[in-house]
């Protein structure tokens, strides 16, 4: 369905950038789970605009209100409705683009598909919409945490600046200590400088986020069309500005020979079996094998740049556009919690499916 | 659902490599479409083993039987059941791996997930299963063709050998003239030589397939979770051995600045609007914009190599495995029609959704 | 999915009787439809408590707020989030049943299924939750009206009092003129008196609602599992207190011979074909045939009665329960708009499916 | 989806009455379940034509072939494809109705919806299609049996002949001892005589099937749209010729007062809680409460009668039709196993959902 994600644990979302509110409904949340609203708000704050001078100056409290499904601090198994009111819309900034299609935005495709669009702040196509995903992801994380599953994403590339070393070399938690969310301190500084330089030029820059999942049970994912990496890929590619997804050794591993790519099984601790290497990225035949799951998501540079661009208007006539509005020079830092949220939802959904299979 | 793909145009599949048959049910096929069984068989033949000396020597007729949904040569709107009998199984080849987990195969994860597995020929995890996709894709292509939509995939990389130039430089139909399915004749020869060399060494090699879709109407794909590229990504990542997906400028475009990445809109022919460049890959805001859609899919080297490897058995004890059975040294040539089939199904599904939206 | 109804036009709901709010998300609403908030509020008012002295004295404004999906008075094709705040909860009335399972309520089954429940006002099992359905139904009606499809339900039986004549004998719109919503004026008075008498006794009474749909195109509904009457049946049986569903001549027609039950086709007006009789209830082979669709839904008497009943508590020990709280002596009058809303959603969903099939 | 039933345990079907075969794919079958092909064939034989002189003389072996998903006699968790070849089609019998719409058949609605139809033997609308449901139901029963859940349906009414007493009065297994499948021996004889008389007149007759489910755990079914009785109702109403569904005291209970309808909870055996009466039919708030589930399904008389009827042809011109072909005078006896099969699938689906909820 269009605005619903998942099968057993589902999120359905609504909202436009400059509408009354954005929000959603989480269905399939297990009952009896203790929910701390601060945990959810903490995740929203990681995505919130205005955290640092690398992000947009739009100022939103992004205060979530849970409307149902939680009673006396615990989930009841019924759907959890929630919303976040929009408060700092400067819709006047968007009057100039009412009839104009901004390059590489969704203005044109929405207009043709629907015949009408809310042009203010990108409407439904705004990345602001992703905060519903953060809320659902935070709820999913509550359950995953109690099952011993952890998820950590970080910025591994901004423009040309790339973390060269493997995720195992870093304390991933340390990514939260800098504004770009990169666990490699030196690279983090270079990335920050690059983003500031690009911002000063009125331009934007893209990059890559890496995500690592630890503690997964064996058996998540389904054969054929529900392969775990296909579900993760779908989840990640549904994030605004995502252009690519790869897991394990990804595109690079495809250059290799089978003899260089295969992971040998070896006896593991406590009766388990593990693999000597993990080029498979924790997924074999579409099903988790108990090793770390890791993947990378490519994000394009934000389409809104603060220089004059040529485009056309609704009548197909050439015009130039010089956007106002407040935008991020680089989405990566704020996309890190979104990647985690989508991973959390995907994993919980797969975990519920696995439970249903165990007779 | 586990073994169903799509929402309005759906394929549900069944079958194991060495079972009685593989097949499926296509639901949502528009009625009144002329179906030529030879067109379907032609696509199956493109995927069939034994087409060239680059592929496995398993010899299957792969003759499809349509069981329903077609009457007097035309579709009736009812589901199309079909099957292909398995005929050339050498199940004895697999007795040695009954209790052994082959490296980077699905043996281990299936065993743990289900507690039982059909170990013969990889069972359900065999790429042989994809022939159901070919049948459904061929049916989808019938409809797309009449709507002016064409799909062409080709091998753009094998190991280190890579087609450097853009797809627009080639006559893509010519890819079918060589065994690797690459439209760049020189590279095709290099790829062939590489595959033969790798095969001689008992090894395997991976690569990349590029796919180009022309003639799409504007409006395919849905906002949020049904973005067209997310659906395509899911489809492609569900193919055996797929490790990555990117569309438009993909991972490379993420290094760029917004000013280098944006596509300017320009007045098009006959009232349409088009873009000067197409870095977006024909999709903006998750919705097709009428330009060519193109994407790339990474495939890992086949896990079965003809050298002795270390692994463990069901009891977790170290053993060595030296597989018999017949395998491809490189899946790319035979994966080309599978990529096309999955793209065709995804597009027809999106097209049916678009029809339902047009009041 | 648990809390989602529909395939192409979907409603996902949330909310508990005494929670912060009840609401939902409508997805798949066609774009460009003019939405008048008063039309939606009008439908909510038909369901609202306190309309007459036949209903509960709980006093709720039931004022709906649309949060997204409507721009400049027209739908945009994006999801429509909405909510209604709960304002008149007397949760203290329910303290006494915190640990007690009321007879024929959902208290026990929810407690065992989820291990926890919001016992206040019936929580999620309260009929208050249906107001989300009213909102979605009102939106669906907007579209159906413009397609020439009308839906009218009415109370055809309360306890022993039954409308004997066929729906064609009445001006169905006149049902709205009395408190029980019955188009037979005399029977309406008898029903009112019965409900008052039952109420005075602290008891409750059930009945039957009949619903008539006119103007359907031929072709709604899908063969096999998506038969139109199966979809309607599912929709109706999902309404609180519903115990049965029949369409056309229903249970009574089953006593008949084929020669008494069959509807002869006859030439209709303007090239159409119609049937001489309509025992089929407008649906043949699961697909609408253009005749009036009509069906009946049975509702049990409300479980909350104002006399002492024997039951058990959480520990399984016998206790007596004498409920406070405010309740309807008969749900029928307020269930009429709910039946219409569910029918509207079902039909629009089927209509969108039909559009997707028309190439 | 059109031809798929269920969410976690799903059946997708294909096939036409006079096509090559009918069959389907069962997905979500738990792994490790022992499958005895004779058990499945036994259920098919209960539905098979020609069991007695009360049924059609079409002679089909209805021999099922399992094509996948079972290995060494046990399910593997992968989809189970199966088919039954059609062998005794007399398609020539149907040439006369190629252009004619038989009264109260699906000929007309299929023709208008799809623009084309397989008119032979009713095509996809034939009750022959239900044998796929029998196969899936037999598989579901294997699992339910091991969970202690039993399902038994029986003919409780044929025309005016009605079993007056409650199901608890009978040994339901004895229903299989007579041709109409009624556990009340005397009524069974009357029913048989009625069917023979009706058959001799070239006419047909309808009736009611009652189904009783014992041993359900508490917690099956989901609030709101997935209420267990709504799912059962959907399942039953999707069976050919079904016109109504009621559970518990159904339509009759709606005449009653709340004080007459409520079921008091009482302490049960071994810590459980049970109800003194079971007017609720084992379902409260849409969720099973551990008591017997029972419901009734109304079936109309078969539309094919062996007397001349007036109708119209494709051009809308009046013609008379006098069908050849072989038909049942009463579907009830052969519908009994179909009702059981649909109940089995619904329950297993709900059981898998319940498993996924139990953390």
From TrEMBL, chains A, B, C, D:
A Pfam family assignment: Chorismate_synt
One GO term (biological process): amino acid biosynthetic process
CDD domains: Chorismate_synthase (cd07304)
Top-rank EC class of the record's enzyme: lyase
Glycoprotein as UniProt keyword: no
Binding residues for NADP(+): 47
EC id: 4.2.3.5
Catalytic activity: 5-O-(1-carboxyvinyl)-3-phosphoshikimate = chorismate + phosphate
UniProt keyword terms in alphabetical order: Amino-acid biosynthesis, Aromatic amino acid biosynthesis, FAD, Flavoprotein, FMN, Lyase, NADP
Residues reported in the UniProt entry to bind FMN: 124-126, 240-241, 285, 300-304, 326
UniProt cofactor(s): FMNH2
Cofactor binding remark: Reduced FMN (FMNH(2)).
Pathway(s) the chain acts in: Metabolic intermediate biosynthesis; chorismate biosynthesis; chorismate from D-erythrose 4-phosphate and phosphoenolpyruvate: step 7/7
InterPro entries registered for this protein in UniProt: Chorismate_synth, Chorismate_synth_AroC_sf, Chorismate_synthase_CS
Claim: Cytoplasm is one of the keywords in the record: no
Gene3D superfamilies: Chorismate synthase AroC
GO molecular function: chorismate synthase activity; FMN binding
Classification via NCBIfam families: aroC (TIGR00033), PRK05382.1 (NF003793)
HAMAP family: Chorismate_synth
Function: This reaction introduces a second double bond into the aromatic ring system.
Self-association state and partner proteins as the record states: Homotetramer.
Protein family per UniProt: Belongs to the chorismate synthase family.
Protein name per the record: Chorismate synthase
Organism, as annotated: Prevotella micans F0438
Gene of this entry: aroC
């Amino acid at each position: 369905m269009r605005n619903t994600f998942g099968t057993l644990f589902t999120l359905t979302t609504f909202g436009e950038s400059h509408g009354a509110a954005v929000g959603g409904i989480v269905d399939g949340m297990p009952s009896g789970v203790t929910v701390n609203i601060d945990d959810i708000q903490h995740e929203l704050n990681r995505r919130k605009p205005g955290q640092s001078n690398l992000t947009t100056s739009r100022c939103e409290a992004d205060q979530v209100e849970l409307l149902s499904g939680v009673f006396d601090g615990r989930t009841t198994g019924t759907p959890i409705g929630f919303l976040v009111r929009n408060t700092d819309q400067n819709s006047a900034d968007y009057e100039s683009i009412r009839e104009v299609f901004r390059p590489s935005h969704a203005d044109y495709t929405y207009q043709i598909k629907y015949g009408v669009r809310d042009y203010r702040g990108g409407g439904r196509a705004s990345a602001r919409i992703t905060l519903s995903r953060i809320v659902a992801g935070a709820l999913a994380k509550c359950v995953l945490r109690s099952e011993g599953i952890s998820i950590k994403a970080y910025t591994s590339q901004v423009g040309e600046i790339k973390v060269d070393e493997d995720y195992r070399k870093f304390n991933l938690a340390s990514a939260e200590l800098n504004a770009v969310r990169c666990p490699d301190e030196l690279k983090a500084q270079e990335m920050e400088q690059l983003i500031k330089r690009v911002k000063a030029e009125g331009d934007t820059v893209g990059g890559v986020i890496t995500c690592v999942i630890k503690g997964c049970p064996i058996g998540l994912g389904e054969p054929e069309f529900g392969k775990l990496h296909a579900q993760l890929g779908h989840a990640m590619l549904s994030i605004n500005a995502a252009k690519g997804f790869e897991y394990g050794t990804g595109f690079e591993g495809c250059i290799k020979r089978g003899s260089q790519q295969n992971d040998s099984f070896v006896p593991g601790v406590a009766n388990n079996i593990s693999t000597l290497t993990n080029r498979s990225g924790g997924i074999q035949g579409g099903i988790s094998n108990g090793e770390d799951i890791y993947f990378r998501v490519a994000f394009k540079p934000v389409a809104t740049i603060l220089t004059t661009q040529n485009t056309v208007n609704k009548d197909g006539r050439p015009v130039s556009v010089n956007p106002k509005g407040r935008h991020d020079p680089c989405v990566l830092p704020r996309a890190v919690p979104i990647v985690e949220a989508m991973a959390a939802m995907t994993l919980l959904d797969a975990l519920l499916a696995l439970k249903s299979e165990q007779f």
